[in-house]
């Protein structure tokens, strides 16, 4: 989107510069129209950096939120394994292996080996994928 905004801004700046060129009265208006066109193009280009940076911040914040949520789920499962120790219905070995598998899945996801969809599907399957 930032590229589209930059291109649109540059086109608008060039169009306004051309319109001003056709309506000029003297050489001073010619110089002003060229300067306005150049300043408009540069301003559009620089503002596209700001839009791109904002988009990156939004994506990174979302990624951090997803990671934190997954870490919280892993920690809750780990806490469940500790509190259920000795319970006949939830064997400790099985709970620990699930927590370890979820931690492995998170590492694969954070390294980019598996996609977010694969990671979420594996978690939904109980960390067995």
List keywords for this structure.
single chain; 129 residues; mainly alpha; 4 helices; 0% strand
Itemize the secondary structure elements and their pairings.
Blueprint: H1 2-22, H2 27-83, H3 92-110, H4 116-124
Helix pairs in contact: 1-2, 2-3, 3-4
DSSP helix count?
4
What is the terminal separation in angstroms? 36 Å
- Beta-strand segment tally: 0
Broad shape: rod-shaped
Q: Which class of secondary structure composition applies to the elements?
A: mainly alpha
Q: What is the N-to-C succession of helices and strands?
A: HHHH
Radius of gyration: 28 Å
Helix content: over 70%
Q: What report would you give on this structure?
A:
The chain is an all-alpha fold and 129 residues long. The chain has one domain (2-124). Helix content is 82%, strand content 0%. It contains four helices and no strands. Helix 2 runs antiparallel to helix 3 (92-110) and helix 3 (92-110) packs antiparallel against helix 4 (116-124). Residues 90-95 have low confidence and may be disordered.
